[in-house]
Specification:
The protein has 15 helices and 14 strands. The chain is globular, with a radius of gyration of 21 Å.
């Protein structure tokens, strides 16, 4: 990679110090395909040993890189092969025991989160999958660093509606088990349509079965950099000029991120995987995707025109990022988590941003309904309906969509849920009061759309 010149160094320093540019995550992707056995405890020990072996110096080396180049690395994470696949070889697998051992290993090596307590059930369940689903809530309630995900559909296979119903039950049970902490367990769980295998962001990161033994995947974020640059544009600048500016900023952010990622991968003596250029916000003022919408000219996120603004932003980010690296992967684009974005929180509190508008925005964003707090007494069937709608958007549009929704037990519209740290806080948002029960309980598999027939 070519070295930075003086101007690029000064620009990067400004982006870091003033506009919150950071490496949002360095994620060690780790295959567990060699950890299978017939005994749960043996499998769990193999997983523990492998995590410790590969990640023992991960955090310290990342800190060295951070100090050497003065680029903040906010999170150090690990993504594992879907645990449902690994544990299925065990006799009567105790997935909660495996979860605890993974959590113990995460504490041992000092990472922030471990993803991969996952299942891929877009076409149906194996017996092992069913057992795994039953144990997700307890596993999330009894661990601190473990994150879980399930893939419920693809554009090629359709959507597993039995899985959608079971997932709604998982979300509600997890929320109940962690009700003393504003149901934070549900914030560590996400369901997907068209999940990607190299995503470095939680809660959905996992190491796909088609991935290498290990790799280092990088997630870079810089919504503050983008919004600041747009504010500096003339108010008369047209959308072509705005798009070109976003592409240039995305290019610069990607270059900085890949530079750090390759340096860290070399220190760890493992392959560099992908860079995921996702404008992932934080609760900090000025580090907001919603602020980009304001810079474009919208009074608030959620105003009419927001979906177009997000579509253009997402497209420009991808175009700029892919010009800077041959290995752009993961989700790459723009995230719209409510609780993690100061501007989104504000818009939700004043009623500019609703769940219906967020659903419309997910047709063009990187993921989907993300970090949304809803009343704790929301029926499971309503949650299932929300998931079904999001899976439909992903399936039809051949894109990744997801749902990370938190029914906060004991709270209702007008209250707030406090999650802390990067997860921030969220106003409890109103959901449609009308029932989805008779629809979602039909079950079965929604057939794949006609465009799935290309091969």
């Amino acid at each position: 990679m070519s070295s930075f010149n003086q101007k690029q160094i000064l620009e990067t320093i400004e982006m870091i110090k003033i506009h919150h540019l950071d490496i949002r995550t360095t994620t060690l992707s780790l295959s567990l395909r060699d950890c299978m056995s017939q005994d749960t405890k043996k499998t769990a020990v193999k997983i523990y040993d492998k995590i410790v072996k590969y990640a023992k110096n991960f955090v310290s080396l990342a800190n060295e890189i951070e100090n050497e180049y003065s680029i903040p690395i906010v999170n150090k994470r690990i993504a594992l092969t879907p645990v449902s696949l690994v544990g299925e070889s065990c006799d009567n697998c105790d997935y909660v025991y495996i979860a605890k051992m993974i959590d113990k290993a995460a504490s041992e090596v000092g990472v922030d989160f471990v993803g991969g307590f996952s299942a891929l059930v877009d076409k149906g369940f194996t017996n092992g999958d069913l057992r795994f689903f039953e144990q997700i809530p307890e596993a999330l309630a009894l661990t601190k660093k473990l994150c879980s995900s399930v893939n419920l559909g693809t554009s090629k296979s359709g959507v597993n509606m039995d899985g959608v119903l079971k997932t709604a039950d998982v979300i509600k049970k997890t929320a109940i088990l962690t009700k003393d902490s504003d149901s934070i367990g549900a914030a560590k769980f996400v369901c997907f349509c068209n999940a990607v295998t190299d995503n470095p962001f939680m809660a959905g990161a996992f190491c796909g079965v088609n991935e290498a033994e290990c790799a280092l995947n990088i997630g870079v974020s810089g919504p503050g950099v983008v919004s600041s640059a747009i504010y500096d544009l003339s108010p008369e600048a047209d959308f072509g000029q705005v798009s070109n500016l976003i592409k240039k900023m995305a290019f610069k952010i990607t270059v900085a991120g890949e530079f750090v990622g390759r340096k860290l991968a070399k220190k760890m003596n493992i392959p560099f995987g992908v860079i995921d250029l996702s404008l992932a916000p934080t609760p900090l003022k000025g580090d907001s995707v919603a602020e980009i919408f304001k810079a474009m000219g919208l009074e608030q996120a959620g105003a009419h025109g927001t979906t177009m603004a997000l579509a253009m932003l997402n497209d420009a980010v991808k175009k700029g990022g892919i010009m800077a690296s041959s290995y752009v992967g993961g989700l790459s684009g723009a995230f719209i988590p409510v609780s993690e974005d100061a501007g989104m929180i504000e818009a939700a509190e004043i009623g500019s941003l609703t769940i219906d508008k967020l659903e419309a925005m997910t047709s063009v964003c990187s993921v989907g309904l993300d970090m949304i707090a809803i009343p704790g007494d929301t029926p499971n069937s309503t949650i299932a309906g929300m998931i079904a709608d999001e899976m439909a958007i992903g399936m039809i549009n051949k894109k990744t969509t997801a749902v990370r929704i938190i029914p906060v037990i004991g709270k209702n519209v007008g209250d707030k849920a406090e999650f802390g740290g990067l997860l921030g806080y969220a106003p409890i948002m109103k959901v449609n009061p009308y029932s989805s029960l008779d629809f979602v309980k039909r079950g079965g598999r929604v057939p794949a759309p006609i465009h799935s027939m290309n091969n």
